[in-house]
Amino acid sequence: MWKAFIAVLALSVLAQLFVESRPYFGVERLFAWNALYGFLACAALILLARAIGLLLKRRDDYYRD
Amino acid sequence: MISHPGLVLIAAAALLALARGAPRAAIALAAPLIALALAWQAGEGVHWRTQFLGMEVAPFAVDRLSRLFAVIFSLMALGGALFALNQERRAELPAAFLYAGAAIGAVLAGDLVTLFVFWELMAVGSTLVLWSAATPRAYAASMRYLMVHLFGGMLLFVGVAGQVLETGDTTFTRMTLEGTSQALILAAFLVNAAAWPISAWLPDAYPEASWSGMVFLSAFTTKTAVYVLLRGFPGAELLVYVGLAMAFYGIVYALLENDMRRILAYSIVNQVGFMVTGIGIGTEMALNGAASHAFTHILYKALLLMSAGSVLLVTGRRKCTELGGLYRSMPFTAGCGIIGALAISSFPLTSGFVSKSMISQAAADGHLFAVWMALAAASAGVFLHAGIKFPWFVFFQKDSGLRPGEPPWNMRLAMALFSALCIGLGIFYEPLYRLLPYAVEYVPYTGWHVVAQLQLLLFSGLAFFVMLGWLRRTLTVTLDFDWLYRVLFPRAIGLAGGALERAGERSSALAGQAWRRLEAAGRRLLGPQGAFARTWPTGSMALGMLLMLLAFLLSYYLA
Q: Pick from B417, B412, B418: which is nearest to B85 by CA?
């Protein structure tokens, strides 16, 4: 499963070489920008959720209703 | 013959409450079809105009924007009714039709007075849908839900009254945020849009509905709010920030959530956030994007909730920790859930891709770099919290040992219909684009855009699986804004009440003491043994008289 998934990831990056480039902003000119940004944005969101979870998570019978 | 599609559904609601068996099923399916046809072919312009309390009202007005929403609401009522045909609680479907009809009435309202009436009717209909779940939890949640919406309705009432007084005009058209009345109207719209921080009512209430009830609830209230924002406040910059806050709030809370339908509830807030951001950007491209995203969102969110509702019906479970591995015995439901998940993530060839892209494109066209970056991050986050998380924890993850079968035929048919629409609109998007309020010149499928979107989504998938350990579900809830009115306010009222009670006890104790002293003094003077009640001997009486006469004589001579 992992092998197939990594192959698909690699394909999505390589495909960038075969399409006409139409960036709107400078950052998009970096190779595989969207791949990098997608990964980092999600990692940051998971970390943020964890931090908020530490503060605000309660047992699920908290409200007792 | 009624030509207003919303009133057709409301009339059908009354019939559904009485009918049984096959006629009931026929009404449930025919009424939304009639409404759909009426909405589709409704000509533009004001169809009904009348006077109400001396005000000009236009209860049936159609333009491209209101027709788009009337069409998708009718379609939603059709799919929802098909899905809910085997619902045993007979009150739910009439309530849902009242709710759907009121939502259509609200989008076809040409004036603010009619809008207010249908706005309140929507709150009633949706509360009745919650009640028909008939559980104590649903009832408690519905009362909190109703309080929030009656508060929103009050804001709208005051705002509309002010607007009508100031301008003398009831027409519902674009407003500017120049006075208190307009601010109140905007606030009322945002309450129904589940704008952060007044967003907690949605994940609090909707997941307590029955397995079919939440399918209806997901569609109408928030999307009617999107519609009124589109009409009333396009280009209000505030909405960009509100929308982005909603998008990220939805992601973070959904990531922390364990209940499968609460995950999807938070993701409604996330998706409405994209629409609200688009309305805030306010260009024709952005407004088209927001309107079309509302259209496609209703379909894929309903599909996701049908899939989750099927799981809830056949397993009776709703927590991710108790589910998993269901793809083995429910491959059809899992497949439909995955199609909904791909569509919400805006995968190419699904409906979400052709609608959401327009909002990002509008941000790029306006050179709003920060907004564009935030939208891209939020798009990646959608795949994370709904696109993978929902199907993974419900249908894969681990083997929970459950082997339930597929749900009944009508539920499968409803899921098949909406799956077909989610993919069909992703490929043949021109009919949708033709329905949009403004002319569309946008082409969603360019090689660059498709590859960029695939990279963004696939690598957020990688982040999900790499960091899976941190996403493991726990038996927890995450405190939200509703904590204020579920815990803090009751506690504060309890504390204040306790303090008052203690103060009352103290003061009554003091008063009691003072009273007892007064009473003792009175008794000493006037009681049975008191000074005035004693029988005095005649001798002491004569002595008293003598003393008084002596004092008189003395004063006579001295004077």
A: B412
pLDDT in tens, A37-48: 999 999 999 999
How many domains does one find in chain A?
Answer: 1
Q: Do A41 and B137 touch (CB under 8 A)?
A: no
**B478–A52 C-beta distance less than 8 A:** yes
Q: A45, B459: Cβ pair inside 8 Å?
A: no
* Ramachandran angles phi, psi of B488, nearest 5°: -65, -50
Q: In Å, how far from its chain's centre is CA B104?
A: 16
Of A5, A8, A42, the CB nearest to B460: A42
Q: What does the domain layout of chain B look like in residue ranges?
A: 1-231, 234-473, 478-504
Nearest-CA distance B463 → chain A (Å):
5
Residue A1 lies in a domain: no
Q: Are B32 and B77 in contact (CB under 8 A)?
A: yes
Lookup: tokens for B192: 């129904």
B125-140 average pLDDT score: 93
Judged by a CB distance cut-off of 8 A, whether residue A52 touches chain B is yes
Q: Which residue has the higher pLDDT, B230 or B525?
A: B230
Instruction: Inspect the interface and report whether the beta carbons of B137 and A38 lie closer than 8 Å.
Output: no
Where in the sequence is the domain holding A36, given as residue range(s)? 27-59
Whether residue A53 is contained in a domain is answered as yes
Is A48 in Cβ contact with B478 (below 8 Å)? no
Question: A34 and B463: CB-CB below 8 Å?
Answer: no
- Read off the tokens for B330: 């429910």
Question: Residue A35 and residue B456: Cβ atoms within 8 Å?
Answer: yes
| Gap from A34 CA to chain B (nearest CA, Å) | 5
Closest partner residue to A12 among B256, B451, B463, by Cβ? B451
| Contact residues, chain A, for B381 at CB < 8 Å | 41-42, 45
Cβ B460 vs Cβ B380: under 8 Å: yes
pLDDT digits over B358-398, tens only?
Answer: 999 999 999 999 999 999 999 999 999 898 999 999 999 88
Distance CA B508, CA B24 (A): 64
Are B118 and B57 in contact by the 8 Å Cβ rule? The answer is no
Q: Rounded to whole angstroms, how far apart are CA atoms B433 and B137?
A: 42
Q: How many residue contacts between A and B have a Cβ separation below 8 Å?
A: 142
Give me the mean pLDDT over the B297-325 stretch.
94
The answer to whether position A19 is within a domain reads no
Strand partners, B62: B45
In the block, tokens 């009409």 appear at B231
Mean pLDDT of B494-499: 93
Q: What is the percent of chain B with per-residue pLDDT over 70, rounded to a whole number?
A: 100
